Amino acid sequence: MHLLSGLARWVASLTRELKDFTDYTESPRRYRRLRRNMILLGILGTTLPLVLLAGFNYHQFQRAMKAELVQPLRILVHRTKHSFELFLTERLSALGFIASAYSWEELADEKGLHRIFQVMKKELGGFVDLGLIDREGIQVGYVGPYQLRGKDYSEQAWFQEVKVRGRYISDVFMGYRMFPHFVIGVERQADKGEWWVLRATVDTEKFNTLIASIGLTETTDAFVVNRAGVLQTPSKYYGKVLEQCPFPLPPVSQVPMVMETEDPFGREVLLGYTYSEFPSFIFMVVQPRAEMLRAWLTLRSELFVLFAASLLVIYFVLYKVTGLLVRRIQESDQIREASHREMQYTSKLASIGRLAAGVAHEINNPMAIINEKAGLMQDLIEASEFCPNREKFLGLTASILQSVERVRNVTHRLLGFARRMDVQYEELSLNEVLQEVIGFLEKEAFHRHVDLRVELSEEIPRIYSDRGQLQQVFLNILNNAFDAVEDGGSVRVITRQEGNQWVAASVEDNGKGMSEETMRHVFDPFFTTKKGYGTGLGLSITYGIVTRLGGKIQVKSRLGTGTTFTVLLPLRAPQTEGSRNGAMQAASGG
Amino acid sequence: MEPCRLLLVDDEEEFVTTLAERLSLRGIRARVALSGEEALQALDSEAAHVVVLDVLLPGMGGLEVLKRIRQAHPGVQVILLTGRGSDQEAREGVALGAFDYLVKPVHLEELIRKIREASKCNAMEKPWRR
Fold this sequence. Notes:
The structure holds 2 protein chains of 2 kinds. By secondary structure, chain A is of the alpha+beta class.
């Protein structure tokens, strides 16, 4: 019960974890745990019913097989008992017939008794001697190999038993000729009030014949014991006649029973037995269990192999399926996360665009005033020859104008942000665009001893894209690369075809690289590492443009090793996007 | 060559008067108008070579003023000024016949260059007549 509730709790915790799997973190441990839980639940869900089924089947089979094996043994026991009883009843009846058919005088006559004895021996066989005993227990007539005439039996137990029960069968005993015998006796009450007992000794030769006749297999043993557990017939394996039977006496039963036990040799055996009331013998048949159950054992091992094989198949399938499933989940999570991130970017870019327009306007007008006022101040100071602190004022106005210039740069970039909404597609060579952009930077590369390596593939096809916007994109990326490298560093520009649909341009630098945290925000608007002079808009504009052009931008970076930006551009202009933009333009234009 | 005559149109008085003063220091005579209506009146009373026109004006918008100038004074060149994020209007203006557009705050030198270009183009292609 305790175990069951524990199991239930465990299963509940597993399923809860499956249900709560809504955290989008990409931790691989999470997916491993998900898979583990799925496998465990799967194993539980399949193994438990399978084990129950197999156990039930096993039990049923075992019962059926046993019943089938035990039944013949019972029949054998019954047959043994029956033939023994038949044999003994026959002897008793013969003796009873003689006792009744002949008068006292005829029996007491030695010649008469002799003749009768000869007929009995001839017709029935197995009789060793025959005696007539009178009311006092004295043997008055005797035919047989010994001199037993006149022997007094009055004190013997068997005589008393005959007196009470009218008949008697003794246990087997060793006779004078070292031959196992038993004795039978019947009483006779004559009409004239005479009473006598006929007593005969029978040898047990006939017992062996009887046992042989019931048709035992090689390993089966059948024998008879008395109530004291002494063997009345020889056993194949468990002793000679009159030796103690090694099996303890089984519980009394008049109907054939079968029990499992162990013989003195340590073999597991099935012991079939039955008690007989008269004579009070126990009939036993012993069969080694292993042999009897050979068929069952074969079936059992086959059952086990089948069970193990099906478990293996289930586990294998489970393993594969969960692997596939979890991989799919992981992929879809990644896609979802990516699109989520992209949506965030897009909405961020859109709101920045709106904000930019407003801010630019609000700032640009006062800035224009400041610009003109400071410019006028500068003009006036420059024009007047006698001005105290002339140089200082000139410095101040220059500083004001410089600051205005800075604000102007920021607002112009913001404007650019909002402005770059529509795209003009034309057929162009990516290599040409790159070369134009590189042209701007060659001077800087020369001055700073930056090793600018350009490896443009001549193989790449021409693409449909926006020349101006691409220039902006690569200028931004290359500017960043130049900012990242030390003087004397290297920047590599590579183009190549990527599959049938894309061309790729990579800008690789061996500069300071980025931390993971920086990488995560690298395309966020206003995120900058260039404290003081960066607007944090360059890469987010770049991202916006590339996305709008139907392209993709990838960044790989390692702190201290360098950064690679790769821009993937489609060979064809994104049709739907372009036509939609056109429609929007037309709508807003009209 | 006749000295270049200029009309500056902007609702920011501080801006426009200062700009006019700076231009006059450089020998360019510039009149000032603070609204579209005023600008059109000024043009009616005295012609100009070039009009520097803010796109965002209270009342009559810059583009409307532009249209009317192009109608009434087809020989006058218009340079648009914009302080706005979207240059949609500015480009629309160019499509409507403006010479070019500049984004505030402007470099004086750049403005002067544009004015020269505009008046030159004016002189070459569409000779200005009184």
